[in-house]
Amino acid sequence: MAMKEIKLEVDKEVARGRYANVAIIAHTRDEFILDFALAYPGHPPSVGSRVITSPHHAKALLRSLEDNVRKYEARFGEIGEPPRPVQGEN
User: Fold this and answer.
1) What residues does each domain of the chain span?
2) Which of 7, 13, 37, 41 has the CA that lies 20 to 30 A from 87?
3) DSSP-derived 3-state class of residue 49
């Protein structure tokens, strides 16, 4: 089954994007809430973007992200796992 191409309009502010090195995910029965934040030493993380979506769209996002990571790794090599923080480290 072929997907129909969707053409998106993106205004200049959104097109600039926002860097995030933290993602916090929560859910209710009806929604997934994804907070994307920037954290750096000595400062509390600051949420720059929040995405709220349905469980169906969250699962589609998961599949699409998995597919894109596989394609990335096939082209550029395996992405290493980030080191786990030491217990008690902030």
Assistant:
1) 18-76
2) 37
3) strand
* CA dist., res. 36 & res. 23, Å (int): 5
Calculate Rg over the CA atoms of the chain: 16
Which H or E element spans position 59? helix 55-76
pLDDT, tens digit (0-9, with 9 covering 90-100), for 67-85: 999 999 999 999 998 887 7
Phi, psi (degrees; rounded to nearest 5) at 37? -130, 165
- Measured between alpha carbons, how far is residue 7 from residues 10, 28, 38 in Å? 10, 30, 29
The number of CA neighbours under 13 Å toward the Cβ of 21 is: 7
